[in-house]
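User: Please fill in residues for this 331-position structure.
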């Protein structure tokens, strides 16, 4: 077993279908993680995830992912109850020499609807011409009745972690959680569409040295602060940067920059700019930045270099804070 350190489903089921969980709530040693859970009917509920890890079966073997490293899950197609076995048996019977067996199998697959699509898609490529033909016909009939969103569902779950994305199948049929309204529950994966695990609030102070992060456009400071669209980012900046230290005090910039074009594209020399992720689009921070985050990833900072090809000196003292945005229910 390897341990990593660091969905989409539209089943119209309501919350009362949740099954009570038997496991105890999270302890102080393993704090619960707050998440917005999106159900198949489109409703969104804020819950605490009680378990510490998720086991995911991938093409490279089983991975155990700490919940604290998970940012978002897009759930694949998890058939409820014994429906998966029934679909498998019906696919086999499509090639039966007995007409009644084929007819029963066809009706069963049509009744299963979009749940049967992945199995039917494989059967449509079967070397048995009869099975392939019947599977293709059933897929067309299901497609005429189901929404395009349901037909696009994949078998795999997609788990986005702080470092990279994992594609595979979550091994357990449920996820342990707790809701203020329903208490401890076991969330059935077959009922879920997506889950967004909120990152903890980040508070920190750091210094951005112009001599290191304000000389070349490619030099960015990794703050180590993780942000995502569920957060509001607040940054307060103080300090000065001398863009021409050969004549001290003549060309001094604050966090908003000096009135001269630098090497930072549209931003003035000496400006403190940021980006989210290694390839994110730069944005001006200035002396104060306070807005919801549109992207997800680590926050990077950079000082726009001097336009006169001179190493800048000085630094900016930066205070960073993140707060979760209020949950907006989606239907």
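Assistant: Residues filled in for all 331 positions:
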């Amino acid at each position: 077993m390897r341990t990593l350190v660091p969905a989409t489903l539209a089943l119209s089921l309501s919350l009362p279908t949740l099954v009570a969980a038997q496991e105890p709530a999270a302890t102080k040693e393993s704090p619960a993680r707050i998440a917005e859970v999106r159900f198949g009917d489109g409703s969104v509920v804020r819950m605490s995830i009680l378990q510490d890890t998720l086991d995911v079966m991938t093409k490279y073997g089983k991975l155990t992912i700490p919940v604290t490293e998970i940012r978002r899950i897009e759930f694949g197609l998890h058939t409820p109850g014994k429906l998966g076995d029934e679909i498998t048996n019906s696919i086999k019977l499509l090639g039966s020499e007995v007409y009644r067996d084929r007819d029963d199998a066809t009706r069963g697959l049509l009744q299963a609807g979009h749940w049967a699509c992945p199995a039917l898609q494989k059967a449509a490529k079967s070397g048995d011409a009869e099975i392939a033909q019947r599977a293709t016909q059933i897929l067309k009939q299901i497609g005429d009745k189901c929404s395009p969103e349901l037909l696009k569902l994949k078998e795999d779950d997609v788990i986005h972690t702080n470092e990279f994305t994992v594609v595979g199948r979550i091994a357990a049929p449920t996820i342990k959680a707790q809701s203020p309204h329903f208490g401890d529950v076991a969330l059935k994966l077959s009922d879920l569409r997506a889950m967004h695990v909120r990152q903890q609030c980040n508070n920190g102070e750091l210094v951005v040295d112009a001599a290191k992060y304000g000389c070349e456009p490619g030099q960015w400071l990794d703050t180590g602060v993780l942000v995502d669209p569920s957060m509001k980012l607040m940054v307060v900046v103080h300090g000065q940067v001398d863009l021409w230290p050969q004549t001290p005090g003549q060309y001094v910039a604050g966090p908003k920059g000096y009135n001269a074009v630098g090497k930072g594209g549209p931003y003035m020399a000496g400006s403190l700019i940021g980006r989210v992720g290694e390839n994110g689009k730069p944005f001006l921070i200035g002396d104060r930045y306070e807005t919801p985050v549109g992207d997800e990833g680590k926050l990077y900072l950079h000082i726009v270099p001097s336009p006169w090809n001179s190493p800048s000196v000085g630094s900016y003292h930066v205070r960073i804070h993140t707060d979760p945005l209020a949950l907006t229910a989606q239907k």
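For context: The chain has six helices and 23 strands.
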